[in-house]
Amino acid sequence: MTARSSSVPSATRPAVVAITGGRVVPVVGDPIEGGTVLVVDGRIAQVGADVVVPEGARVVDATGRWVLPGFVEAHGHVGIDEEAQGWAGDDTNEMTSPNTAGVRAIDAVNIDDEGFRDALAGGVTSVVVKPGSGNPIGGQSVALKSWGGRTIDEQVISAAVSVKSALGENPKRVYGDRKQTPSTRLGVAFVLREAFTKAQHYRAARAAAEAKGEPFAVDLTLDTLARVLDGELVWDQHTHRHDDIATAVRLSEEFGYRLVVNHGTEAHKIADVLAEKQIPVIFGPMLTSRSKVELRDRAIVNLATLAAAGVRVAITTDHPVVPINLLVLQAVLAVRDGLPRQTALEALTVNPASFLGLDERIGALTPGRDGDVVIWSDDPLTTDARVEHVLIEGRTVYTWDAAERRGHVVERAERFAR
Length: 418
Known about the structure:
The chain is an alpha/beta fold. It has helices at about 115-120, 170-175, 185-210, 220-230, 240-255, 270-275, 300-310, 325-335, 340-350, 350-355, 410-415; strands at about 15-25, 30-40, 45-50, 60, 65-70, 70-75, 125-130, 135-140, 140-145, 155-160, 160-165, 235-240, 260-265, 280-285, 315, 375, 385-390, 395-400, 405-410. Strands 1, 2, 3, 4, 5, 16, 17, 18 and 19 form a nine-stranded mixed β-sheet that branches. A six-stranded mixed β-sheet has the order 8-11-12-13-14-15. Helix 3 crosses helix 4, helix 3 runs parallel beside helix 5 (about 240-255) and helix 8 (about 325-335) runs antiparallel to helix 9 (about 340-350).
């Protein structure tokens, strides 16, 4: 479950904000011409054509513009693989052991990374930051707002989101080069199976100790995997080839955890299986070359094929593999290659929020969710649309200056000026 507390300190948020006059696209309902989104104390209070704006509210005029929920990047490394920092800013992989389930992305995210500013320019207001794919089990992800806190803790949507795992070439290469397990796909699956078997025994021993009122030594690695088995954490499976995806499904059914396929380059080859088993796919990144063998069949049209088969999909940039501000461009290209427009919008908003258990807070313009609202110059699924105004929990964090032809991010000194 997601935390219900607000991410942005209340002292920095206006009490009531009304975004008025635009074409409001809630994503989960029909567009509203000349609609209003009313945000009270950081949360959406009303959405509609006949919303009465309270006296004293701050009004943001969106006439002639498109108003949408902030986009959700469901699989990124922004803040832990920092822009223009090289090795000093790269904390993506703790590749000292094949199983590092106990490490947490939150402990390595720099919220002042330029990637977060780029996110705002692309209408991305929420990011799920994940460890990398060098290990079979990489660690715990964190969902956070793209901007607004004095520390990362004030931007967190949920620290209990998922555990990142990798199948395929990456862990094979990393540990194969060291001549240690896992050096093959056999070995990678073995590491996962062994880890979950130990977690099952750990969970049983913990329950027995609790029943007897006896002390129990916590193992952070096994405790995290026990939370996956309990359904508290999603299993985010980095996997490209269709055979690796089949292995991911097999393991998830063997141990009973919630699986979300990440990347899914060849997921279209077994789309009917994924649809039947209701396993979602966070697809992408799309704007890449065939840089390794398992990407040889990568194509943007594969996303449309997946969706047509009934698989629920989201879209990722895998930032910094593709810059996070190009998330919407990938959706535009997917629509060109056959993805329905509504599905594309859902893949940027409500779907990733739902896959990762964040849909009480983000992903749509509906009452009760956070006031994360983006005003676009035009339809965002066109290449000439631009983000003009971004609000996170009702606070303006980004504006486009047409005269200067550049965006303005509300920086820390402005946000927390006394």
